[in-house]
Amino acid sequence: MIGHKHTDFTHPSHSSRLHHIWTGVIGDKLAIMVCAAFIFYCVVGMLAPLIAPYDVNSPDFVDLLNAEIAPYWISADERFLLGTDSQGRDLLSIILYGTRLSLTIGILAVAIQALIGICLGLISGYVGGRLDNFLMRFADVQLSFSTIMTAIVFLALFQTAFGINVYEDLAMFMLILVIGLAEWPLFARTVRASVLAEKQKEYVDAARIMGISKTRIMFRHILPNTLTPVLVIFTIQIANAIIAEAALSFLGLGMPSTDPSLGALISSGFRYLFSGAWWICVIPSVALIGLILVMNLLGDWLRDYLNPRTYKH
Amino acid sequence: MTQIPLVQISHLEKTFTKDKGIFSPFRFNKGKFQRQQESVYALNGVNLTILKGETLCVVGETGCGKSTLARTLMGLTPPTSGEIHYLNDRIDHLDDNQRLLYRRRMQMVFQNPYASLNPRMTVYQTLREAISFHNPQMKRRNIDEKIEGLLNSVGLYADAMDRYPHEFSGGQRQRISLARALSVEPEFIVADEPLAALDVSVQAQVLNLMMDKQEEQDLTYLFITHDLAVVEHFATRVAVMYLGKVCELASRETLFSAPKHPYTKALLSAIPRLDTNAPELIRLSGEVPTPMEKPIGCVFQARCPDATPRCFSEPPIMKKQKDGSSIACHVHEEDQTS
């Protein structure tokens, strides 16, 4: 009488579930577009040295004779598809390199945030007590300083202490480090909140009764159940990190103008905006806005995609 | 049949302190700072012996400490005082490493089958973790065979392995929980209201499965429930709890034919019956008091229809009766002597 075996219907096997996800992705037009756009940005960023029409490192790249040439459809100058900037650099090439820089800084900075935030959030939520109080108050204090303000103070101090030349060499690492360290509380708080909810659940008790160690329970049992909000934050934080980097570069504390990120390009183009050379500012802005929009849409979509309940029959 | 006591619980107490802040225990009262802490007395000295091979059902209202008893027994929460012995070893004070020896001998099945399985792990992963953790030298192939055997034995097909818990119904999940508990070959299983979240028809299936397993593997159950029909079907002995104390402990037959404690009588009279010779419904007045203050005297004093002044001053202790049951009640005791 116990043999409650179901033969009347069959559950999907592992491969057909993957197929189900795949058809779900294909069915969602927005998902395809966002994925395609994200892959496009990544490919463009990675392959920038190959697809850029000019070598940005060659000494001929800067030629003041070509300064401020309008895009091809206005100037009909076939050499420069998107025109040139005030120093005569090909805008398309430096935008490609800028995208590469912005994405790298964004992803690495958020990787640092996530690593610190997830570990501290897990420990804080699972262990609780005084440690939890200490870590969360520390996070509160850090969140009360705005990221940009902390970064400005820190980067400005670094610039004056070590000189502008050292700074320009290390600008990328400094930006990653500063943005990475400034916003970990966001991850820590989200993870902690999820951990507090998850550790009440009986499967954690069941694991404890099995005798499984605390570390394994934290990372193997609780962490996967808290990752859905983390992944959403992850993508949105990449967008925020790129914005922060752009803002710092715009203020002159980010990437140097010889090795510009999208923010630095917008900053240098901003000065020519009202003198008629709008493309130096507007085209990198469009690239930046597109990138951030894609990251935000991707975050939304991932939230749905990674939830196991969405591929329920 | 000689009966070996498998688990002995003596004078077990558990107090939950309400406030844990640094400053909150200090209250400003009449010009003085006073230190006060509010506590919840979940268990007030529980004494129980669980015999090998039996099914001891613990019944009682919500909030009487049944689940706390189970959690304390399994080492999920440390007891405030008292001792728990497993065979001859004291286990209540052990830390996680020392307890590991007893982990595979004592397992637990939880109330909510929707929360007791990790939603991000397939059935295979859940079972494999348990088996390979306790049998680290076991080969992959043997583990796979064992998992397949386990799933078959709880009435699930082996193709259930690669699915996630949300793909199963409540009854199927509870079988998986049972399979997980059985995977380490325990001799003692604590079941904390395993049927409360299931449909009646599915309850019977799971209950029968548990009884079959008990016969096959000589298991001992501590079965927590508030469903007296289940108790009547399943129990060897029954412990009735009220407000953190055991007030009556009797074999199933004795409890249902001759309940002695006024609370047990009231509980039994509340079972809806179709036959006409039902005893008169005993209606208890008032609510279950919140266990915030340790009561002086009998815990049941406020709602007991037969309470005497002695019940308000002196706590009754468990006394063995002629028919083998034991109860804690002054009134019953006085009736016997007079």
Automatic annotation (TrEMBL), chain A:
Under what name is this protein listed? Peptide/nickel transport system permease protein
State where the protein is found.
Cell membrane
Q: Which organism is it from?
A: Marinomonas balearica
Q: How does it sit in the membrane?
A: Multi-pass membrane protein
Protein transport is among the record's keywords: no
Is Transport a UniProt keyword of this protein? yes
Q: Which CDD domains match?
A: TM_PBP2
Q: What residue ranges are annotated as transmembrane?
A: 30-52, 101-123, 143-164, 170-191, 226-252, 272-299
PROSITE patterns found in the cross-reference section: ABC_TM1
Automatic annotation (TrEMBL), chain B:
User: Which residue range or ranges hold the ABC transporter domain?
Assistant: 26-268
Superkingdom classification of source: Bacteria
A Pfam entry, by short name: oligo_HPY
Keyword check for ATP-binding: yes
The GO biological-process annotations, alphabetized, read as: peptide transport; transmembrane transport
Question: Which SUPFAM superfamilies does the record match to this protein?
Answer: P-loop containing nucleoside triphosphate hydrolases (SSF52540)
Q: Any keyword Transport?
A: yes
* Molecular function terms from GO: ATP binding; ATP hydrolysis activity
Q: Which UniProt keywords apply?
A: ATP-binding, Nucleotide-binding, Transport
- What SMART domains would the database entry show? AAA (SM00382)
Q: Which NCBIfam families match?
A: oligo_HPY
By its UniProt entry, which PANTHER family does this protein fall under? D,D-DIPEPTIDE TRANSPORT ATP-BINDING PROTEIN DDPF-RELATED (PTHR43776:SF7), TRANSPORT ATP-BINDING PROTEIN (PTHR43776)
Similarity field: Belongs to the ABC transporter superfamily.
Protein's UniProt name = Peptide/nickel transport system ATP-binding protein
Q: Which source organism?
A: Marinomonas balearica
